Amino acid sequence: MNALETIIRDVLVVQGSLSVAAYMEIALQHPEHGYYRTREPLGRTGDFITAPEISQMFGEMIGVWCAEAWHRLGDPSPFALVELGPGHGTMMQDILRATAHVGGFHAAKQLYLLDSDVVLRRKQSEVLSDSKPVHIDAVSQLPSMPVLVVANEFFDALPVRLFEKTFQGWAERMVTLDQKGLAFALRPLADVEMNLIPASLRDAVPGTCFEFSPEAQIRMRELARVLLSRRGAALIIDYGYTARPGFATVQAVSHHASADIFERPGEVDLTAHVDFTALADAARAGGANVSEAVGQGAFLRNCGIEIRAEALKKNATDEQRTAIDSALKRLIDDDQMGRLFKVMEIGKCSDLTTLG
Fold it and tell me: How many Å apart are CA 175 and CA 264, to the nearest integer?
């Protein structure tokens, strides 16, 4: 039992139970022992690898989108270039390299980064020091100027509440204590809470699960309002779904492998697949226009990643060409990241891009 599990057990002794969202919030964000407050999770020595770490081509294609979106906004100067959850700063490095020859882009940009991981914040400041990044805690802190926002694997880390249909009706899956330790238990929903369950799922068969992220809703509405008031566009990339799967997707990951959700809280990553339908609804509620969510593979192809791969291979060794092909396959193939990962644009303008 680690220090954070002891704290959680003490809370449960007093409180009886925690929602899955509350448990995730403590495990990920506890100020002293939380996962995102104490460690560097990315890379081969960490717990997971994101697309920017797989290949420079990914960030370069996001750079293509940034340049195109900036032109659509009328080449504003100054403008805020914002990344939510920048990791090591790798994607932003690649974005800045890809836009280096876009006339006026770099002179006009002011870089802002949103991240709760204090370890990664220091890394980002070092890697992106030439651009003098400013760290923020909420997009509402951005100055009053046009904005371009990119978010890769940001929303999957936000806590979710987990509901399950039983033979007696809908219930919420809670975290509690049993004789063996942390465990799940079901709490029947009150009538007023049934409004949380989509109408299409209320008569679902027993065993059906539904996940809902209040924080994702709040963050997306806030982002939509910022885009509306300051004029701008945002690109959201994450693993998730548009048609709700009917099963729980909350998962724990440690050293690139699945782990028990209750194993060493604060030392393993906890995530859930992103509900892009819910995100789109929240963005519209905040006043933004929303594109169709498309597969990452279709988006990257549309941006020209295959052409970029061929260009990189021209001056590469045989080993490097093999690595480029392997990275391309991982990023765009349907049986890799190409279909599971979705891309969605939101913005103030009505002329959103066709992503795929």
Answer: 15
